[in-house]
Amino acid sequence: MPCATALGVLGGLIVMSSLSACGDGNEVTEVSTPRSPAARVTAATYEQYDGLFAEWRDAYVACARAEGLDASVPEDANGIDGGSSPDRPRDKTGLDLECIQKVGSQPESPPLTAETLNSLFDLSVAQADCLRAAGYPVKPARAREVWVESYTSSAGPWLPLDAVFEAGGDVVEAVRVCPDPDPRSVAP
Fold first, then answer.
1. Which of 14, 18, 151, 177 could disulfide-pair with 157, CB 3.0 to 4.6 Å?
2. Does residue 1 carry a pLDDT above 50?
């Protein structure tokens, strides 16, 4: 099989990462990314974020494979499977520190506007109503202003699924019955 080399361009910025692979496509022979981990990119839209994340994820998986980790992209293309090992240093998100230093940190999703946060509050209240109707013990929401203010704080906001988890309920089933609010659905 012929060898291939790719240079990444993310959101109009040249990331200057290259990946060379030869063979059946599963072997990675070289990964080099001079982008600094401090050069974290924040997407302006979720569409841009999806592209940035896919580029970053693929570079991270290639690096992890080159380091001998059994990393892959799951079937639903969300996240990374097997991207770290307890035998190797990890960053605060649990990913392989050496690869994060090589490919940079995961891009950040778009900032949440006041309008988006207020809409998320409404969706969280609707999810809580749905969970209560399904028999889950969910306390009422805090005041809208407190919830919006706490969303990005270290304390975090009131989330209806926290009550399900704290009560020992099946969170996966609860999300199936009453889906989690998605910022994408209310983003401008």
1. 151
2. no
